[in-house]
Amino acid sequence: MERKLAFVVVVFCCFAISGCNSLRLEQFSVYNPSLKAETFTFYKLGLQWPQSFCRSDGVICDTSPTQSYFTIKSLSPQYNPDQEVPPYATNQTQTCTDSTPTSPKDITLGLLGQIQPDMAQYWPDLINSPQKNLDLWQDEWAKHGMCSSYPTDPVKYFKVALDFIKANDLRDSLSAVAQIIPTNSRTYSRYDFSNAITRALQVFPEIYCSTDVRGQVQLEEIRICIGISGTLADLKDCPTRFRGCDSNAQLHFPAAP
Hints:
By secondary structure, the protein is an alpha+beta fold.
């Protein structure tokens, strides 16, 4: 009712002012504080190859990564068609949730409880020492989790990513489906990675590439799109197939030194 009333006032004022000959409805957007928060449409789960991440131009890791499996980079709510939901902010005129989210400072090892070992294994801070893991998780919650389906339940948010990565070893999938293995002696095309993951998961992933310190293009992330239910049965085709990967690029998939 308030929005309709505001629109009527705008129309009346428009016709009362000389020179207003026409009215286009789409020109008027009247803020109404009673409007509900905008709902995102899917999650994008970023799974990074640690060796590539720490070789990316501009990235300095404290130590060489020891993981021989993909780790979690992020779990971001997305608007259609493929726009990342901005971080939650209490001063926004249109927030991403009607709830008051858990504060990042309330993300503690005690709150994470039984999932903390899985978080340390699958969602580590690759740049800093393991002692900085909690800072990373708090940052990820502030950037993405507060606008997820679980703004007041951080454990459920983190478990969306954990449940997927524990059920799907992408390195094994690449090897089993297409004989793609980490190596410093050959390269692959972007389609090699995309097609292998599509065969393994029956959905299109997003392949994200970066440039290493020597200027070589490398696979850095495989991104998986998941419906807002966050379940393994709700995987979706990613709307963007490739980022940073030219069609003719030869991608490195580096092995550990």
